[in-house]
Specification:
Blueprint lengths: L1 E6 L6 H14 L5 E6 L13 H4 L11 H10 L2 E7 L7 H8 L3 H4 L7 E8 L4 H14 L3 E9 L8 H20 L8 H16 L5 H9 L17 H26 L5
Parallel strand pairs: 1-2, 1-3, 3-4, 4-5
Helix pairs in contact: 1-7, 8-10
Bound molecules: flavin mononucleotide.
């Protein structure tokens, strides 16, 4: 099992130790090929806001740094641990830059079949927001979020250890079980709605998002009979909801476009 840890802490501190704890638990059950990517050690620059990656394609990003090889590293792993301490109620700046630089993947998801574990540590507050945020992002990228753990610093020795250990063990075991599983997870209703919503957007607004439309066409997601990103049974009720919302969205977009072309203001 190849596991990659994207480490958003600028030091080998609490978050690193929590990741090591997960490694030890997983090693009780399986042979691991484990790698840390310390974001602090990489050449990763801030996004410049041109949106070339979204509109034209990631290869048109003017920043030439390690971002694209990081994407490849994630593709080469079976599972990825996204780890960040809480800084000012959110992920660290290092982690946010990493996410910003991969924003286009929200439009062109590519990590289906890959498992993720979300890990955070905090002094006291903000951990649920960080876990929720990281989960939303990597789920949109296509990862199956198999485990989450948020541990708290021990200001008084012994007060948090049992709780932290239990949480790390539960997350490690869930991650390990997901890594062994071959079948893809069943999509939730919201996943189906997102699929249809994005399809309507990139098809109707293909001139605005040419890279997205081309990618979706290449993947076969624009085909009428495509129900989801991967070939997996979709709950027929979710499918019906998705199709209905897609039709509505397309109609609205066409109407907006007609109104704009005829100078009708809303
Ligand atoms: C700049 C900074 C901001 C922080 N902000 C928060 C915060 O908003 N909430 C919180 O509970 N802990 C906060 N902390 C504490 C860290 O989240 C906590 O110590 C964490 O375990 C550090 O992880 P590390 O040792 O891997 O760097 C902050 C720490 C630093 C250095």
């Amino acid at each position: 099992m190849k596991v990659l840890v994207i480490m958003g802490s600028p030091r080998k501190g609490n978050t690193y130790r929590a990741a090591e704890c997960i490694r030890e638990i997983m090693q009780e059950k399986a042979q691991l090929d484990w790698e840390y990517l310390m974001l602090r050690d990489l050449h990763l620059e801030q996004c410049r806001g041109c949106a070339n990656c979204i509109v034209k394609g990631e290869e048109f990003c003017p920043v030439k740094d390690d971002a694209l090889c990081l994407t490849q590293k994630m593709l080469d792993a079976d599972g990825v641990i996204f780890a960040s301490p809480v800084y000012a109620l959110q992920v660290t700046g290092l982690m946010k830059v990493f996410i910003d630089r991969h924003s286009y993947i929200m439009h062109r998801p590519r990590f289906f079949g890959k498992k993720a574990l979300i890990l955070s540590t905090a002094g006291a507050v903000g951990i649920s927001d960080v876990l929720k945020y990281l989960e939303s992002v990597v789920h949109m990228w296509g990862f199956e979020v198999a485990g989450k753990a948020g541990t708290f610093e021990e200001f008084i020795p012994g007060t948090r250890q049992q709780e932290n250990d239990q949480m790390l063990r539960a997350a490690a075991e869930a991650f390990h079980a997901a890594l062994r599983r071959k079948s893809p997870p069943k999509p939730r209703c919201m996943d189906i709605i997102v699929f249809h919503g994005l399809r309507a957007t990139f098809d109707e607004l293909g001139d605005v998002f040419p890279a997205d439309r081309a990618y979706w066409e290449e993947k076969g997601w624009m085909k009428k009979d495509a129900c989801y990103f991967v070939d997996v049974p979709v709950n027929p009720v979710y499918h019906a909801v998705g199709v209905m919302l897609e039709k509505y969205q397309r109609r609205q977009m066409r109407k907006d476009s007609r109104d704009t072309n005829h100078g009708v203001s809303t």
